[in-house]
Design brief:
Blueprint (H helix, E strand, L loop, with lengths): L11 E4 L2 E4 L2 E2 H8 L3 E5 H14 L6 E5 L6 H10 L2 E4 L2 H10 L6 E3 L6 H9 L4 E4 L2 H10 L7 E6 L25 H11 L5 E7 L10 H19 L6 E3 L17 H14 L3 E4 L3 H4 L3 E12 L4 E5 L8 H5 L5 E3 L9 E7 L8 E9 L6 E4 L21 E5 L2 E6 L14 H4 L8 E8 L2 E7 L8 H8 L10 E6 L6 E6 L5 E2 L3 H13 L6 E6 L2 E8 L2 E5 L4 E11 L2 E9 L3 E6 L8 H9 L10 E8 L3 E8 L4 E3 L3 H15 L5 E5 L2 E9 L5 E18 L7
This protein binds ligand LLP.
Length: 706
């Protein structure tokens, strides 16, 4: 076994005893969002693209990234931005390519089985080139392009019958493979196309296969195609483009040699230039394979007489290449092994119920323990893009690292993703009993909530359930009912119902409680985003503490004077998700809140929606003492998150207190973070506080009769 020495240029290097991607420790990401996960390096992607472009610069080819290798939107966006085009195989890939920003004039479309709908979609978008693979497809294109403005551009995909000497499953350019047209068949079609009113033949296309590590097959094929092009020219068919497909092989093991692209470029440049052709290429693997790894955790170790198994949390559904092609992916420990650490021969296997579920067989690895993370290297190509949900497993998240930063490019699936395209009629016909309905009670700074996972949509009327459950004597007792529901825009949606049955837009303490609930139930990781009626909330969970990003506060009105019961009260209005009226006072404990607050809450100035009311006393050290009367609850509550934020922000504007502000409420302390601007606006507003899980239980159907 060789030492885990890493290529100097690699974006994946050991630093301080841990494997890093660029400047981020991989174990930190894994700790935070869990495993398995895919991780990509921005720097590696950039350098692969620039290297390819530089190597072939004398031909200035159109580099069409083959989306099938990895259609992750973030990666696609980066490549589109660098000026790459796209090679697509399906309507879905076209959709993603357009969304990522690849201009239609740089999109080429290959595939033996393009459907009528897919062709129509591509015609509507006026993509650059259809790489046609059969006579039938050409006839259909002819029919569909009738009546369009201008002619559409096609290349015929030739099956050159050349063995690229790669794995038989990824060989595409041999006669026995389904791809492309034979040369004499293609010749007839080219000649026929001369008379076409709707179609112009622009080029010739081939693709020999994938993971090709020798340049000879390319040279032979380009030679063959060049001759064919000259032969066609003599018959009046003048082709402009040669599309050489993809297939550039990489080194999955250090002892392997990748395709020598420098040599390939230097040999083909004269051939292409001589004939005045323009070059298109469709690299997939070359651009993304070594930009990505899959990170997995060792769940268990198992020992047999003849074998040792490392059972990890990623399976063949996450990375199928080892099983499907016997592909080799190097495996590294995230914790750098010591030079002296003993080696062992293991099978690295996943949790899927198939004996073929392995990532490596008889692999010699430095000894590792249960709970350790492993990196499956070079998994950026045909990794996630071939992943499935077999065994109802959740598709893993994808992360992009750039320097010291990382972003969650795709969140981990949650259970409800598994059923979102399935019919839900069972539940509509009441075949799934909704009772007993599990719930959790949590409290955040003195606000208590009943939280129910309503992703199956069993609760149709949250308002009426809240009215039954919130009363302390006849229900469970709570300041509100929180429903966690599906969201098309974020990890989940929070709906919050007051005890009077009304639905609130947002509640800071409620938001923290539901985030903790989602985390405890495995619905989200430590960071998540969720939808509320007041917008998307981002959130970080650390133990009991939950910190949420608040929407930008709105409708600030300072020094508003209200006349209440014949007296004038001055305060500040601010909407921090819900409306708040904040009054500063020197002795908050003595404010006759019960008498005063309802009249302010219902004051004509705040109609029709009314307002919450906060009484605030400034203390030393950026600290506020706050009492809040909450609309909907219609009394003073022990704490109110949006009220704490409104108090801190108006306190900043009128009393000069600065971030972070400690807000003391009866139910506990909250911390408010923010950045203020000169124009009295705020950004980066965060609310942090503790949440507590009080109990879990089941709601019985008798609640219906309350
Ligand atoms: N162009 C066409 C028409 C293709 O069919 C392919 C890949 C490419 C370009 C990109 O090939 P690349 O540069 O990535 O080698 N799942 C297999 C590879 C299948 C390749 C399919 N066609 C694997 O994991 O090895």
């Amino acid at each position: 076994m060789r030492e885990p020495s890493l290529n100097e240029e690699s974006s994946f290097q050991y630093k301080k005893g841990k494997l890093f991607c660029e400047d981020v420790s991989i174990s930190q990401i894994a700790d935070e969002i869990g495993t398995p996960l895919y991780l990509y390096s921005h720097r590696a992607l950039l350098s692969n693209y620039e290297r390819l472009k530089g190597t072939f610069r004398r031909l200035s080819p159109l580099i069409c990234y083959s989306l099938k290798a990895n259609a992750n939107l973030t990666l696609c966006r980066i490549l589109a931005h660098l000026g790459a085009g796209a090679d697509i195989l399906s309507g879905g890939e076209l959709y993603k390519a357009l969304l990522a920003g690849f201009p239609p004039k740089r999109i080429v479309f290959a595939g033996v089985g393009k459907t009528r709908q897919e062709l129509e979609f591509a015609l509507r978008k006026d993509i650059f080139m259809f790489n046609v693979e059969s006579q039938g497809e050409l006839e259909l294109l002819e029919e569909l392009s009738r009546g369009l403005d201008g002619k559409i551009r096609v290349s015929l995909r030739i099956n050159p019958d050349i063995d690229p000497k790669t794995h038989p499953y990824i060989t595409t350019g041999m006669r026995e493979n389904k791809f492309g047209l034979e040369m004499d068949e293609a010749e007839k079609l080219y000649l026929k196309l001369k008379d076409s009113r709707n179609i112009v033949s622009k080029g010739i296309h081939f693709h020999l296969g994938s993971q090709i590590t020798r340049i000879e097959p390319y040279l032979r094929c380009i030679e063959k195609m060049s001759k064919f092009i000259s032969h066609l020219r003599k018959q009046g068919v003048d082709l402009e483009y040669m599309d050489m497909g993809g297939g550039f092989g990489i080194a999955y093991r250090q002892k392997e040699s990748p395709l020598d692209i420098e040599e390939l470029a230097s040999q083909i440049t004269p051939l292409i230039q001589e004939r005045g052709l323009k070059l298109i290429m469709e690299p997939g693997r070359y651009l993304v394979a070594n930009t990505g790894i899959m990170v997995t955790q060792i769940l268990y170790r198992k020992r047999r007489k003849e074998k040792k198994f490392l059972i990890v949390d990623a399976g063949m559904n996450d990375l199928i290449r080892p099983v499907l092609y016997g592909a080799y992916h190097e495996i590294k420990k995230i914790q750098q092994p010591k030079k002296t650490s003993p080696m062992e021969v293991v099978d690295v296997v996943g949790p899927v119920c198939e004996s073929t579920d392995f990532l490596a067989k008889d692999r010699s690895l430095p000894q590792s323990r249960q709970g350790e993370y492993l990196a499956i290297m070079d998994a950026g190509a045909y990794g996630f893009s071939m992943a499935s949900s077999y065994n109802a497993r959740l598709l893993p998240p994808e992360v992009l690292v750039k320097g010291e930063k990382w972003i969650l490019s795709r969140r981990r699936e949650v259970y409800s993703d598994l059923t979102k395209t399935e019919a839900t009629s069972l539940e509509e016909e009441n075949l799934i009993p909704s009772y007993p309905l599990p719930f959790v009670k949590l409290q955040g700074s003195g606000n208590d909530f009943i939280v129910v996972d309503n992703r199956a949509n069993l609760i149709k009327d949250g308002g009426s359930l809240a009215m039954k459950l919130c009363p302390r004597k006849t229900g469970i007792g709570a300041d509100g009912l929180l429903l966690l529901e599906e969201s098309p825009r974020a990890d989940f949606k929070m709906r919050i119902f007051n005890p009077d049955g009304s639905e609130a837009e947002m509640c800071g303490n409620g938001a923290r409680c539901i985030a903790r609930f989602a985390y405890l139930k495995g619905i989200v990781g430590r960071r998540c985003r969720f939808e509320t009626l007041a917008g998307i909330i981002s959130c970080q969970i650390q133990g009991k503490k939950v910190k949420i990003g608040m929407e930008k506060p709105q409708d600030l009105r300072l020094n508003l004077r209200l006349s209440v019961k014949g007296e004038i009260y001055e305060g500040h209005y601010l909407n921090t998700g819900v409306p708040h009226f904040v009054l500063f006072t020197s002795r908050v404990d003595q404010v006759p809140l019960k008498e005063l607050a309802p009249s302010i809450r219902n004051h004509p100035k705040f109609r029709p929606q009314g307002t919450n009311v906060d009484f605030v006393q400034v203390e030393k050290g950026n600290t506020l003492k706050v009492r809040t009367y909450e609309r909907g609850v219609e009394e003073e509550t022990l704490a109110c998150g949006t009220g704490a934020v409104a108090s801190a922000l108006t306190g900043n504007l009128t009393c000069g207190i600065s971030s972070p502000v400690r807000v003391k409420m009866k139910g506990g302390d909250l911390l408010v973070y923010f950045e203020g601007a000169k124009d009295n606006s705020f950004s980066e507003v965060f609310l942090e506080g503790e949440t507590r899980l009080i109990f879990e239980g089941k709601i019985s159907e008798e609640v219906e009769n309350v």
